[in-house]
């Protein structure tokens, strides 16, 4: 599954317990069961590629278990490292300067060639 929406969320840091979970909807809602749509609505996930933060509670984990095929769950460290990587990717890079003029010849180089 090289073109999977889940590939952008691969862990870049060790996975540890976190008091906050960041949940991102990566699959579309059309064609899903009504129960799953209502569960996502209860988690405030209404559009694709939107991320919400929730406290790590047993009720939330039960809701995530219900819609695990539609969402990606990240801990705080995973979320922060992904955001940092995105910022580095979007950062301005120094411009590439290309000079098409011939290199200048000096008189000493011309004298040594004779």
From TrEMBL:
Residues 22-71 form the Large ribosomal subunit protein uL30-like ferredoxin-like fold domain. One of its GO terms (molecular function) is structural constituent of ribosome. GO terms for cellular component: large ribosomal subunit; mitochondrion. Keywords: Ribonucleoprotein, Ribosomal protein. Residues 94-114 have a biased composition (Low complexity). One of its GO terms (biological process) is translation. The keyword Ribosomal protein applies. Residues 81-114 are annotated as: Disordered. Belongs to the universal ribosomal protein uL30 family. This is Large ribosomal subunit protein uL30m. It comes from Musa balbisiana.
